[in-house]
Amino acid sequence: MFFPKKVKFRKWQKMRGKPFKGVSSRGAKIAFGEFGLKAQEGGLIKTNHLESARKVLVRFIEKGGKFWIRVFPDQPFTKRPPELGMGGGKGDVAGYLVPIQKGRILFEIDGLAKDKAVEALRQVGGKLPVKTKIIAR
């Protein structure tokens, strides 16, 4: 699973407003591979989404290519137990997530034929909670 080795602050404050508004200028171009998966909308991607997408890519690539995950979940989110009354503070850290803006490259792949790479990225896009688009260099 993806999570940071060490964090400066265990719990972060809640994001206010619309943190996914706008278009990403950082990480918006393919840098490593030949094909990429680009976010078409903003949203939150949790560690379990990235892990399931990584498993799909590993299964597709076998020994023929290489892939890069261009995002890392470093923002903690908390959750309180069910049926708990008001008060008692903030809940325990339940996991980590990464906020995504529109236009961000999430995955890159190289060393595969075009049809196989496109199919792999199409299946990866189905594992993520945001709309995605496959792009080529």
From TrEMBL:
GO terms for molecular function: rRNA binding; structural constituent of ribosome; tRNA binding. InterPro entries: Ribosomal_uL16, Ribosomal_uL16_bact-type, Ribosomal_uL16_dom, Ribosomal_uL16_sf. Gene3D superfamilies: Ribosomal protein L10e/L16. One of its GO terms (biological process) is translation. Keywords: Ribonucleoprotein, Ribosomal protein, RNA-binding, rRNA-binding, tRNA-binding. CDD domains: Ribosomal_L16_L10e (cd01433). The keyword Ribosomal protein applies. Belongs to the universal ribosomal protein uL16 family. Part of the 50S ribosomal subunit. Binds 23S rRNA and is also seen to make contacts with the A and possibly P site tRNAs. This is 50S ribosomal protein L16. It comes from Candidatus Niyogibacteria bacterium RIFCSPLOWO2_12_FULL_41_13.
